[in-house]
Structures are given as C-alpha cells and as structure tokens.
Amino acid sequence: MNAIASHFDFKEIQRKVSLHLRPWHRSFQFWVRAANIYTSYKVFQVRVSLVKDVQKQEAMWERQHELAADKIYVLCVLTLEVAQIVGKPDLAPAAWVKKLVTLCDQAPATPFDEVQLVLEKELGRSVGEVFEKFDVNPLGSASIAQVHRARLIGDKNDVVVKVQHPGVQDLMMTDIHNLQAFALYMQKTDIKFDLYSVAKEMEKQIGYEFDFLREANAMERIRCFLYVNNKKTPVLVPRVLQDLVTRRVLVMEYINGIPILNLGDEMAKRGINPGGKTAAAAKQNILKSLTLAYGQMILKSGFFHADPHPGNILICKGSEVALLDYGQVKDLPDQLTLGYANLVLAMADNDPVKATESYRELGIDTVSNCENEQQELLRLAQTMFDTKLPPGVVMLQPFSEDSSIQKIGVQSFPEELFSVLRTVILLRGLSVGLGINYSCAEQWRPIAEEALYGAGRLKGADQKD
Questions:
Q1: What is the distance between the alpha carbons of residues 336 and 340, in angstroms, rounded to a whole number?
Q2: Phi and psi torsions of 99, nearest 5°
Q3: What are the b/e assignments for 384-415, b being 16+ CB within 10 Å?
C-alpha cells in the first residue's frame, strides 16, 4: 500500500486539480454577483420611472447606489482588478467610489516560503546572501504582487522588495475576459458607450504589469522627467536599484510615509482637526501636487503613471506626496496628447464648439438625437475627463434617461485614451475621499496651452493668464 502511495502524491494531485478548477470557480462567482447587481438596477429602473417628483427620484437613485455599493464591494474583494475597472468610463456614482476607494492593498498575501522561492530563483542567490534583514510580513499585498521592507548587506538605508504572486497571471486574465464579456453585453443593451474597447485596453495594460523590468524603466523615465522639469518635483518617485530587477522581482528605495487613506486618522493622532483649516490646506496641497504632476506627465511628456489609486499614494513629511507602482503607464501618441490638450481647454472654457471639434480629433465617434447635441457633448466630456462634475450633475446615473451617457451614444472610443480617462476618474475618487471638489481641467489649462503653443496650434495672444 505504501508503495502505491509513493507513486501518487495525493496532495500534489489535489493542488493541481484545485489550480485547474480555480478559474472556473472564479468565473462562476463573478457572474452570480454581476447578475445580481445588474438585475437589481433593472428592477429599480421600473420603480423609479413611476415616480414623477425629480427630487424624490434623485434620493431614490442615491439610495440604490448605496445598496449596490455593498454588493459591488463584495464582488471587488473577490476580483480586485474589478475595483479599478467597474463603472468606467466614469460611470461610478459617488457611493461606489467612496466604498471602493478603500480596496487598495487587500489581496491575500503569498506565504513567505513561496516568496523566498521566487526571490532566490529570480536573483540567483539566497535571501541571506543579498539582504541583511528582510521583513517576513509584507507592507502590503495587491492583486499582482506584494511588497516587503528589507535592507541590503552593507547598506544603511532600507529598501522595498516587490515580488510577484506565483501563478496569478492566468487568474487575472480570466477576470479580464469575464469583464470584457459583461462590457460587451452592457454596451449592446443599456449603456451607449464603447465599453468593450475600454476593457480591451485594460487587458493590455494589466498584461504589462507582469513585467517588472518594464516597470523599472518606466519609473526611472518618469522620475527623470519630473526632476528635470521642476525646481522641486511635485511628487517623489522611488529610485530603482537596477542590478536587483528581474521580470518578477523589483527592488527600490524605501520612502517613509503614510497611505493617503490613513491621512485623517494620522491628523487626529497629532491633534489636528481633520475638518479644520490646517487639514484643508494640507489636502489642497496634496491634490495640487498630484494634479500638477499628472498635468505635466500627460500633456507635456505624453508618458504617464496611469494608476493613481489610493494604495499607490503616500503622504510624507511636510505634505509631500510619493507616487508608487509604475506597472501601469501609458505613452500617448502626439496626436492624442494634443487632441486631449484641446479638450482640456474646451472643458475649462465651457466651450461646446471646441469640445465637439476635440471629439473628432481624438477619434471619439458619437451619435445623438438630442436637440442641444454640442452642449451635451461638452457635458459628457466634463463628466468623463474632469474631476469636477458639470453644472447640474450632483451624482452619476448611467441608467437614468437624463444622463449624458444615454443622450450621446459613444460608438467608438480610442483604447489608448482610456488610460487618461481612468487616471482622471481615480483623481476624482481621491478628491471625493478628501472632500474637495476641484477641476483638473482648470488646473491643467496653462500646461495644455503650452503644449498647443509648442506645436504651433495656439498663438501667444490666445493664451490666458
């Protein structure tokens, strides 16, 4: 009997079967939860259509979004990447944003013995040969990798070691393909927007995240750009240790700071009223730094960090901001960069004619039967591409008949532009979390003007102070 058992490692067989079935189980859970959320909104649509009072309708929508937010939160705990995609492009109501903004680094951690195997295989040396000390418990664990604090032999400064979760790529591609199928269904039945192209771009971007060599190069490129183009860089970017980077391991300098989500608690600990003037000024400075950095990256360089969710932002001494995780970056073609610069000016100036021209230049194909088409195009642009909601919009209601997304059908949307859209929406999520309503389009106007002027598309007399 023992001889037979020696030929069959039942635990290994069980592990392989479990690994094979995991994507199927994951898909089943996704579709059960997604169907529940979808049907709850369809039933609600019938109920709210029977109510004629506009204020009562808005209150009902807000309550519905709050109820749905709890279900979406559960779905996103299962599939963390859904938290970064669901509701895009800018279809996420404030109730969703507030709930999902806390889902940043809550993925299950890989046990240290498995982390050690990855490290030693990638670096070609034992952990003890490279590091003087290595914290077994990770600082955080996200959907693709987890990070540990460590110190190199012979060095006085700490480093951060980013290690990819083993076997996670196939599982995440399953999640993305489920989202693509759901997006295709939604755009054919309910939302007049090219959601499938958005999901396809997300698949491409997430695929890049599994290559830490690419991430290291992106980090150094952005770090160099921000430090060269400013007397003082608006955000701190970790320095990469180039000789300790592989496809699945990335070692970088440790930056001391607190996660932006813990800012309120940290202020309270220090006796600062989170709702007072001092706190408000600090929050304004934080958003100003982030907005300046992103305006320069998108409109001046065209190469930018495309994942500013709260888990990637640290607040350091003196309200300095550190921007982490460069797995998702985007390099925009010059035509799209300039087209977006033109759209920024249209939004900042509330210019519907210029907004309409920008849609065409960007390759956003729309169809509409509404009377004031140009005004609705501007409204939709501000809803998607500005952190401040347009006048009259207090919350986003993608299923509402009065929503711009229902009045203006977006038949095609450039995949490359999704990263800009997603970045703006994540910045909006941060502003919601910090309780500050501001317009990134207004902040970016001088940078957009500079980009257009440099390309010969704007005369000096047309620039505004």
A1: 6
A2: -75, -45
A3: bbbbbbbeeeeebbbbbeebbbbbbbbeebbb
Check residue 106 and report its DSSP letter.
Answer: B
- Tokens 């800009």: give the residue: 420
Calculate ∠ Cα 90-405-81, nearest 5°: 30
State how far the alpha carbon of 116 is from the alpha carbons of 119, 123, 381, 423, in Å: 5, 10, 48, 34
CA–CA distance, 174 with 194 (Å, rounded to integer):
21
Percent helix, strand, coil in the chain (nearest 5)?
A: 60, 10, 30
Q: How far apart are CA 403 and CA 148, in angstroms?
A: 45
Tens of pLDDT along the chain (465 residues) come to 555 555 556 666 665 666 667 778 878 888 988 899 899 989 998 998 898 888 888 888 888 888 888 887 777 655 655 555 554 434 466 677 666 665 555 678 899 999 999 999 999 999 999 999 999 999 988 888 999 999 999 999 999 999 999 878 877 888 888 888 988 888 888 877 777 877 787 788 778 889 999 999 999 999 999 999 999 999 999 999 999 999 999 999 999 999 988 888 888 888 888 778 888 888 899 999 999 999 999 999 999 998 887 888 999 988 899 999 999 899 999 999 999 999 999 999 999 999 999 999 999 988 887 778 888 899 889 888 999 877 666 555 555 566 666 677 778 888 888 889 888 988 887 887 788 888 999 999 999 999 999 998 886 646 665
Token couple for 80: 């963390």
Q: Which phi-psi region, left, alpha or beta, contains residue 392 (left: φ > 0; alpha: ψ -120 to 50)?
A: left
Cα–Cα distances (Å) from 141 to 137, 144, 324, in that order, read: 10, 8, 13
CB 235 within 8 A of CB 153: no
pTM over cut 0.85 = no
SS3 360: helix
Q: Is the peptide bond before 89 cis (omega within 30 degrees of 0)?
A: yes
Q: What angle do CA 170, 171, 172 make, to 5 degrees?
A: 95
Q: How far apart are the first and last CA of the chain?
A: 86
Residue type at 148? H
* CA separation for the pair 222, 293 (Å, rounded): 10
- Residue 172 near residue 206, CB atoms below 8 Å: yes
Instruction: Give the position of tokens 């032999």.
Output: 153
Q: Hey, what's the torsion of the CAs at 217, 222, 225, 228, to 10 degrees? A: -90
Residue (of 325, 332, 345) closest to 300 by Cα position: 332
3-state secondary structure 255-281: CCCEEHHHHHHHHHHCCCCCCCHHHHH
